[in-house]
Amino acid sequence: FSGVIKSDSVKNATKDTLKQTTVIKPSSSDTIRYFEAFHHVRIFNDSVQSVCDSLFYSSEDSVFRMYNQPIVFSHKSQITGDTIYLYTKNQKADKIRVFENALIINKTNEQLFNQIGGRTINGYFKDGGFNYMRVKGSPAQSIFYPQDSDSAYTGMNKSKGDVIDIYFIENELNKIKFINDVDGTLYPMRQIPEEEKYLRGYKWHEGRRPKTKFELYE
User: Fold this and answer.
1) What residue ranges in 68-215 does DSSP mark as E strands?
2) Cβ atoms of residues 32 and 14 within 8 Å
3) Which of the two ends of the chain, N or C, has the fewest CB atoms closer than 10 A to its terminal CB?
4) What CATH number does the domain containing 25 carry?
5) 101 and 149 Cβ atoms separated by less than 8 Å
6) Could you tell me the residue range of the domain that residue 122 belongs to?
7) 191 in helix, strand or coil?
8) What is the CA radius of gyration of the chain?
9) Residue-wise burial string across 50-85, b where 16 or more C-beta atoms lie within 10 A, e elsewhere
10) pTM of the predicted model as reported, rounded to 2 decimal places
């Protein structure tokens, strides 16, 4: 994984304080074995961006462990939870694990927000974007806006189940599959109650998202 990290304080394996902005290049000869970053941590990579309060990274397993209100962004999607582990492979995001109060929000082209929430999320990346995710909860819940053959939105489907599988195509949420104890309601577009549009914990954090690597040097 290569990218740029900025925080108030960064320490490496020798406990030395590094520059507040750190460039990650695993292929270089001076690769840090591990480092910790604290307070106002921001990460930028071309396909994945993140913010959190504290972070631990080890080159031994290539996992970014993010704590205290972590948020991960990828294309049109945002993931939040109590703790997030971002696994990398061959310098790219490979999979993600979200622990407790897990929520993924996917923005459509019509300013509508698909949402899937639960206790945990296990997800996988492909070609720099989300490919598949499994959400578990008690229950897991979703808000999804299905489309007809002409790509027009037909309504809002609010459902729940023990497990929800999510499939993406070209970074767009394509299909949702429910497993066990499934229950749901489909609302026509003009009859969606305002109080039913959002899952617990919903908040769109686009304003906190790092837009370019250059702003991390400011």
Assistant:
1) 71-74, 77-80, 83-89, 92-107, 113-126, 129-144, 155-169, 172-179, 183-188
2) no
3) C
4) 2.60.450.10
5) no
6) 3-199
7) helix
8) 18
9) bbbbbbebebeebbbbbeeebbbbbbbbbbbbebbb
10) 0.87
